[in-house]
Please model this.
Amino acid sequence: MKRIVIYQKSTCGTCRKEKEYLTKAKVSFDEIDILKYPPSRGFLEEHIDAGNLEAFINKHSKPYRELNLAKRKVDKSDLIDLMLKDPNLIKRPVMIDGKKVYFGYTEI
Model:
């Protein structure tokens, strides 16, 4: 059976909820600390939909508020630059299930 990879943050309630769900569902997973080892630029470029950037942003994060992203227009490239500078902007958890990638809590 393949293992799921989860980019997560230990203090993230949504990440904990996802891990609890996967554990109860008996799904094996490996955890990666998203702050220490964020996804690469190539990964983000491949998986972030330029037509729906809002779906990939952690709107509850401090940098989201500080950068006033609710009122700013940023394109995909600029958003990825910001995410790489501060991975707290990436919606968590990020789960990789083979070729499928999910941002945010997902019951797979």
